[in-house]
């Protein structure tokens, strides 16, 4: 490195301009000056430019990695959401089947209870009908007996009494 530095300091000595118009062109000294300027510029600026360039490459790579991580995370969440949707569909289907079975059970129970209620109502109706018939028979018998007992003039034997009661009841 020291040799390069010494050459850089000594090189301008050889690059004196051309003579005073004797037809010589100053292209060689100008090229040497340009090479010296460019080498000094490269020596001073190359490392920061390389560092900035590498830093930019690294920042882009880091952002790309971060974006890829986010993409992977969002894909994982998407897959998890899809699994939850499928599970929800399965649960909904199972729930619908269970509800249908419950409805069938409830309908059967309601039908059975309704049949029992109808049977109880029919039995109650028959009992009430029999009770009313007996009540009417008693009322008719009572009326006939009251008529017989009120009239002393008419004395009836037992056979006639039964015949009269049977006529009233029918």
TrEMBL record:
CDD domains: ATP-synt_Fo_b. The keyword Flavoprotein does not apply. Keywords: ATP synthesis, Cell membrane, CF(0), Coiled coil, Hydrogen ion transport, Hydrolase, Ion transport, Membrane, Transmembrane, Transmembrane helix, Transport. It is a single-pass membrane protein. It is found in: Cell membrane; Endomembrane system. InterPro entries: ATP_synth_b/b'su_bac/chlpt (IPR002146). GO terms for cellular component: endomembrane system; plasma membrane; proton-transporting ATP synthase complex. The chain crosses the membrane at residues 27-46. F-type ATPases have 2 components, F(1) - the catalytic core - and F(0) - the membrane proton channel. F(1) has five subunits: alpha(3), beta(3), gamma(1), delta(1), epsilon(1). F(0) has three main subunits: a(1), b(2) and c(10-14). The alpha and beta chains form an alternating ring which encloses part of the gamma chain. F(1) is attached to F(0) by a central stalk formed by the gamma and epsilon chains, while a peripheral stalk is formed by the delta and b chains. This is ATP synthase subunit b. It comes from Campylobacter vicugnae. The gene is atpF.
